[in-house]
């Protein structure tokens, strides 16, 4: 994904960000397939990323952390429950509350995907240099208003 691949000399920032996300997504899917792991949709990735710590969370909390609606999160969680990657247990307090956690299969998929994402970041660091990658990470961390 070099500058020579895109003739537009000064594309909008949105275009650059979309290209970057597309590169990560395409590479992640290709490497998951090469590792014999089923693909992860962006919606599934949002769920799995926030459960990686091992602490079960409510659907409402997952939605808040991912910045999506409860309905969107509920749909993704339901799909992952059906695939056997998540478990659902009764939560404290409100009778209908449930806590969502990773199953062993979900943990394995998260571990493989996390390793691939670390490799992709190292690949990017090899192209940009470690200082530029650190600066990019810092800039993207600070850039978005909360």
How would you portray this structure in words?
By secondary structure, the protein is mostly helical. It contains six helices and two strands, in the order H-H-H-H-E-E-H-H. The chain has helices spanning 13-34, 42-51, 59-66, 70-82, 104-128, 130-143, and strands at residues 86-90, 98-102. Strands 1-2 form a two-stranded antiparallel ribbon. Helix 3 crosses helix 4 (70-82). It is globular and about 55 Å long.
Q: What can be said about the biggest beta sheet?
A: 2 strands, antiparallel
What's the helical proportion of residues? 55-70%
- Element order: H for helix, E for strand: HHHHEEHH
Tell me how many strands there are.
Answer: 2
Over all CA atoms, what is the radius of gyration? 18 Å
Shape call: globular
How many DSSP H or I helices? Answer: 6
**Average pLDDT metric:** 87
Percentage beta strand: 5-15%
**Which structural class should the secondary elements be placed in?**
mainly alpha
Low-confidence stretches: none
How far apart are the first and last residues' alpha carbons, in Å? Answer: 30 Å
- Report strand order across the widest sheet: 1-2
